[in-house]
Write a structure and sequence with these properties.
The protein is mainly alpha-helical. It has a domain of 42 residues. 61% of the residues lie in helices and 0% in strands. The longest helix is centred in the middle third of the chain and has 26 residues. The radius of gyration is 16 Å and the shape is elongated.
Length: 72
């Protein structure tokens, strides 16, 4: 990674970084909200474990793919 200060980088780079951070936080928030609202019997495994897994975007994606039961 370059050692150029954040403010001196090309305009597109900080926008991309901020966008990725916003998307990551949105995924984590959506996963946490889903965990909060979903009954225990519709979650594969324990909710506390999934809360720890969902602390980052990759964990949130994993939860959305494999952590939830299909509701009728």
């Amino acid at each position: 990674m370059s050692k150029t200060p954040f403010r001196q980088r090309p305009a597109s780079e900080p926008v991309l970084i901020v966008g990725l951070i916003a998307m990551s936080l949105g995924l984590v928030a959506a996963a946490e909200r889903d965990l909060h609202r979903r009954p225990d019997d519709e979650v594969h495994g324990s909710k506390p474990l999934w809360r720890v897994v969902c602390l980052n975007a990759l964990g949130a994606l994993i939860y959305f793919r494999w952590g939830r039961s299909r509701s009728a």
